[in-house]
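Input structure tokens:
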């Protein structure tokens, strides 16, 4: 969905990125967000390593980097131009005006964040259920089913992805 930002263009800076350009790296300060005008951007965990994983591809009308502006944390992933692209850069100083002048974009950001939260919540519930199933089966002396092993592997994949994006995870958590 392409959102019109014409009333905001006079304050934002448009940047062009050639294919393959790293726009920002995981761990960089989250000091701006990008609103894609043309082209495609890939968001990666562990970019440039053997564990590199493409998390999502974004195109015109999409945005990225908003989390750093919202929570003042470092970048959780690396953004790379998958093809030549242009994007409006929204700095921290411009962010409130951007949100005020673009209510459709506010809704889009909230929807995307809600989807991410919903997915992570489901991942957590699935992990808790799988652990519960393992414990119950071991209490009863039952072997692990193929389905359970597949679930556990999915959980390990999510865990590894999260760890690559955010560093060491506090393992003192409970379901």
């Amino acid at each position: 969905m392409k959102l019109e930002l014409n009333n905001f263009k006079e304050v934002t800076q448009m940047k062009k990125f050639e294919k393959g350009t790293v726009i920002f790296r995981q761990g960089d300060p989250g000091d701006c967000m990008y609103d894609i005008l043309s082209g495609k951007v890939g968001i990666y965990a562990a970019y440039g390593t053997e564990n590199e994983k493409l998390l999502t591809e974004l195109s015109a009308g999409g945005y990225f980097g908003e989390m750093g502006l919202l929570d003042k944390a470092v970048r959780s992933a690396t953004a790379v131009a998958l093809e030549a692209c242009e994007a409006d850069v929204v700095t921290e100083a411009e962010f409130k005006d951007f949100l005020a002048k673009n209510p459709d974009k506010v809704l889009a950001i909230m929807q995307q964040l809600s989807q991410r939260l919903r997915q992570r919540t489901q991942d957590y519930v699935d992990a808790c259920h799988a652990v519960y199933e393992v414990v119950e089966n071991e209490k009863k002396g039952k072997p692990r089913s193929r389905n359970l092993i597949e679930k556990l592997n999915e959980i390990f994949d999510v865990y590894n992805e999260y760890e690559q994006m955010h560093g060491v995870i506090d393992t003192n958590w409970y379901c």
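The helical segments are 66-71, 92-101, 103-139, 146-166. The chain has four helices and eight strands.
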